[in-house]
Every structure is written in structure tokens, then in C-alpha cells.
Amino acid sequence: MKKIIQLIAFAVALLGAQESFAQNKPPRQTNVVTPQDGANKEKENKRKKQEEYKMKREKHDAIQDKATKKRMKESRKKSNKTGNANRLPWYKKIFM
Q1: pLDDT for 46-86, tens place per residue?
Q2: Which residues contact 5 (CB under 8 A, 6 or more apart)?
Q3: Which of 48, 86, 44, 11 has its CA nearest to residue 3?
Q4: How does DSSP classify residue 42?
Q5: pTM metric for this prediction
Q6: Which of 76, 71, 72, 74 is nearest to 88 (CA)?
Q7: What are the respective helix, strand and coil percentages of the chain, to the nearest 5?
């Protein structure tokens, strides 16, 4: 009986020692960025920038008085006529 208990204790000690030498698994990553997430984030950042630009532009226009707004409109028309980069179609030029 004593020999069986010693054998069981030895087996338990041997298994316990083997388990302690095993490597621990690394924790699972929770915040994994996929290419799709990156694309969505880029779209969201671009949309936010455009909204911010539009708000600042509207605020700037709201601050101006009537004469300044008129000058701004005239200079915008002139730049649209002479500049080829931002050429407007004929139907948009009529109602500008």
C-alpha cells in the first residue's frame, strides 16, 4: 500500500513538473486592425475633414459684410473664367 501511494505521488509530481515547464499561450489580440477597418477609418477621416472645411467656410462667409461678399463673388467668377483647373460647365456659369 505504501508503495502504491509513493508511486501515485511520484506520478502526480512528475505530471505537475511537466505542466509547469510548458509555455503559456499568449493572450488573444482584441484590437486587430484589418484592411477593411483601415479603409473605413480613412473614409471617416476624409468625411470629417470635409465637414470641418465646409463649416469653417460657411462661418467665414457669414462674418463678411455685403460689400466684401460682393467682391468675393466677383473674384470667384473671374478665377473660374480664367482658371482652367476648376473649369465649370456652361450651365453652372449661367446661374452663378
Answers
A1: 999 999 999 999 999 899 999 999 999 999 888 877 776 66
A2: none
A3: 11
A4: H
A5: 0.44
A6: 76
A7: 75, 0, 25
